[in-house]
Amino acid sequence: MAVLAAVALGAQPRIRGAHIGRNSRDFSASRRLDFLGFTRSGKRLRSSSLGFCKPRGVVAAAASPAPEATDSRYSQKLVLVVGATGGQLAVASLLEKGVEVRALLRNAEKARSLFGDKLQVVVGDTRNPEDFVPSMFEGVTHVLCCTGTTAFPSKRWAGDNTPEQTDWMGVRNLIAAVPKTIQRFVLVSSVGVTKCDQLPWNIMNLFGVLKYKKMGEDFLRSSGLPYTIIRPGRLTDGPYTSYDLNTLLKATSGTRRDVILGQGDTLVGEASRIMVAEACIQAMDLECTCGQTYELNSVQGDGPGADCNKWAKLFVSAGTSTNQV
């Protein structure tokens, strides 16, 4: 049955909505499900929606081209990307913008084969609390967590890489270790986490993936950290898990580049991995996204691309509706 596919940066279940993947001090420098209903007010929130939220360091003015790599908003960051092998698109986009990236992942050699010496690499496993040493967070301004595993038993569960261990315990350990001085913690979760007792989500949740993601979300909300949670629909485009940087930078979303953002876990549809990665990056600098949870779908259209002002309009428009979790 089609729903018995995996949820992660790898294979995705073809149902409406789904998820987006020892101790070392090595700091070397180194689709066609249409949007089926944003029912709140019957409004479709696209990049052309009205409203605005001022990004940090950006003057509230007309939309501008994508920022250059020398933009101080990017050059002054150090982003710790957790699950960087699965979050390759986010890493590639950050590097292209001139952001310094530190990657926490289990396989350092794979990261270096993909990105060379363009990022710092820290070897660790979020499931092991002792792997979180203070030096890991030295200088870090933002954290992006895109860890995950499959919803149903698969070879990716080897080594106890289950939803409970990865989506709950690993996320909990990371949040508990992050310094309170962090500027923003962005967590990639999934649509449907509040609907575990409803079809088709109860099928997706047979082994607890949605339940454990929701537990991770709730732990972040209660942590006192400034956070933003992005819940993508069923992921499309890719998965991009074994490509070099140049290939990743050429990835496109085809014709489904427009974005719909919602709140309250009401969206049902697909989400481009490329647009999810960009949403996470853009949310880091927007004051209006702090303490907020958003669902994301991709639809036909040109979309916001990397334009920070267009993303700001999207986020603030989504926030005009009742904020439910």
TrEMBL record:
Which Pfam family is one of this chain's hits?
Answer: NAD_binding_10
Q: Which CDD domains match?
A: SDR_a5
Q: List the coiled-coil residues.
A: none
Protein name listed in UniProt: NAD(P)-binding domain-containing protein
The superkingdom listed in its UniProt entry is Eukaryota
The UniProt record lists the NAD(P)-binding domain at: 83-259
